[in-house]
Design brief:
The chain has about 170 residues and is mostly helical. The chain has helices at about 1-25, 30-50, 70-90, 95-115, 120-125, 140-165. Keywords: Signal.
Length: about 170
């Protein structure tokens, strides 16, 4: 009777081990992230882009070296990191439409990332090291320009991630 009991313990231990190891290697659900982006974040980003458009300086070409990688995980990390940088940029007493729009984009991006890709979310928390700067009265225009550039880079990254996954949207 000892053999079946030992075998049962070994099988249960193996099942427990497989269950623990599989949870640690869970992949991000890029398709689900893109669905939520398309449903909510896209409109909020467009609204934010329109609000900060007046602060933009004329630029040629794309929004700069955002998301140079073609790997989904790295693009997601860039998106998450830029969102947290945006949040740090608008900390403080400002309560204008731009700040409200930034906070909506940031909070939705963070929740989508946290819900569908905890590994990226945790990694982006440790990546953001920029401290918010003390803003004077005359720095609002300059701050809006920085926000506008960051938003443009964020849009570029989302577009790149979306284009990498365009085959999943053919259905």
């Amino acid at each position: 009777m000892i053999l079946p009991r030992t075998l049962l313990c070994a099988v249960l231990l193996l099942l427990l081990l497989v269950s623990v190891l599989s949870k640690g290697k869970a992949k991000c659900s890029i398709v689900e992230i893109l669905r939520q982006y398309q449903a909510v974040i896209f409109d909020e980003l467009q609204n934010l882009k329109n609000l900060t458009r007046s602060a933009e300086t004329p630029r040629r070409g794309r929004a700069g070296p955002a998301c140079l990688s073609n790997k989904e995980q790295k693009i997601l990390l860039s998106i998450s990191t830029m969102s947290m940088s945006l949040r740090d940029m608008v900390r403080g007493p400002w309560r204008n439409p731009e700040v409200v729009a930034v906070m909506q984009v940031v909070s939705n991006t963070e929740s989508v990332t946290k819900q569908n890709c905890k590994k990226i979310y945790k990694k982006s928390l440790s990546t953001v090291t920029e401290k918010p700067q003390h803003r004077g009265q005359g720095n609002r225009r300059k701050q809006l320009k920085v926000i506008a550039r960051t938003v443009e880079n964020l849009v570029t990254c989302w577009e790149k991630l979306f284009s990498l996954h365009s085959k999943d949207w053919d259905t």
